[in-house]
Amino acid sequence: MATEQSGTPAPARVLVASNRGPVSYTRRDDGTLAAKRGGGGLVSGLSAIGADDDAVWVCAALGEGDREAVRRTEGRLDPADTGGQRVRMLGIEPEVYTAAYNDVANSTLWFVHHMLYQTPLEPSFGPEFRAQWAAYETYNRAFAEALAQEAAEAAAVLVQDYHLALVPGMLRALRPDLRIGHFSHTPWAPAEYFRLLPDDIAERLLLGMLGADRLGFLTWRWAEAFKECARSVLADRGLTAHWPEDGAGDGGRHLTFPRGNTPGPSGGRTYLAVHGLGADGDFLRERAHRPDVAERMVTLREQIGSTPDGADRRTIVRVDRTELSKNIVRGLFSYRQLLLDHPEWRGRVVHVAFAYPSRQDLAIYRSYTEEVQRVADGINAELGTDGWTPVVLHVQDDFARSLAAYRLADVALVNPIRDGMNLVAKEIPVLSERACALVLSREAGAYAELGEDALVVNPYDISATAAALHEALTMPTAERTDRAKRLAAAATALPPQRWFLDQLEALRA
Fold this sequence. Notes:
This protein starts with 11 loop residues before the first strand and ends with a helix. Helices cover 44% and strands 18% of the residues. The strands form three sheets. A nine-stranded mixed β-sheet has the order 5-4-1-6-7-8-11-10-9, with helices on both faces. The chain has a six-stranded parallel β-sheet with strand order 14-13-12-15-16-17, sandwiched between helices. The protein has a two-stranded antiparallel ribbon with strand order 2-3. α6 (167-174) links the parallel β6 and β7. The chain is built from 19 helices and 17 strands. The relative contact order is 0.10. The chain is α/β, with parallel strands linked by helices and 509 residues long.
């Protein structure tokens, strides 16, 4: 990693803000820093803009390695570490970051939007939460101030996700000339659930979002939920909604809210739009045929095994983080019910389940990961035989192994309780070499695009999900092939680069 860059960089015409940036750092034993570049839709999207657009990415330091990089560079990272991208990393105080990220964003807002609370017991909002909320405001303000410093006149700013819900309003007050967009990667809670939040905080969140000229969502279901929250909470503040059925006429679907002296380029209007992030088909197909994936396929085939007559066993594949919303435990119980209801599948099918640990600094996530392991072990102990392991569970993250499982999938099981999109539902049909059938929760955002060709389930109904798994395994080859082709086409309709550029073009229009 290089040292501090000299000179003051030119103002940026395109800015992206997100909690996590395109690079992270770890400290080596000799005190030097090792940079690791990330991937995903934002990285692909920003790279598609091109150097001529003077783009900068603003993100937070996540750990001590990142904070040391900020100290050494004053937050302006070496382009050699970032793939040529300009990155401004913010060294937010660790205690402020923890309260904002863990306590408010992930333990409150995530739970609200995914409707995960056990409401007889939680949530409870007292003085401790108010202190955490103050940290969330401080965290958002740091982003708003950095963006205001970095942005050229009339620049386009794309703010990402629930971590930064207050940034549009704060940034609007600092720089009313900017074109500000915000994109929500999660679901949006219905109004009655959103109002679990303290009234003043619900209002501040919505006002923060409405500082944007455009708000992007993954489906119209989530956009409409936001509209209903705004109407419910802010109706007496002068907010109105223009919501034609098809989004056409008078500029499309928008909310109008008085903004005083800082109306922004869109006047008092905030336009709501949908950009359904798709799978990057070209990247997935290329990456899935590298040697490391081929090696993982050999290992997985050995673990899956064959039937006594030498035939390949069928596979039901799922790949998830152990987030509470992913519904992995009910998926395992549904597979068990399949084997109980249809014993003819015993020894002929294997559930390949990858449950990669997520947010293990939170006790409830550690407990959930342990429960996934316990249930999988229980199924194997109850129903397994010397020559057949019903569940092949892996909990150590391995991207190449995930791609190998995608290629081997006969059935993809994606049954979240609630999910903004769920890209796994789109990725498996793209890579499956067996024309996989998709069993899909109606509560996944992907349902809006894939539901017609998937086998759709209520994620809480174990018996119905077991029946859908049986239907998927017995679906005639011609029907499964036709459905798989349509699923793959829909899944790749808006790949990450196009998804990002569509938002940018709409914001600049």
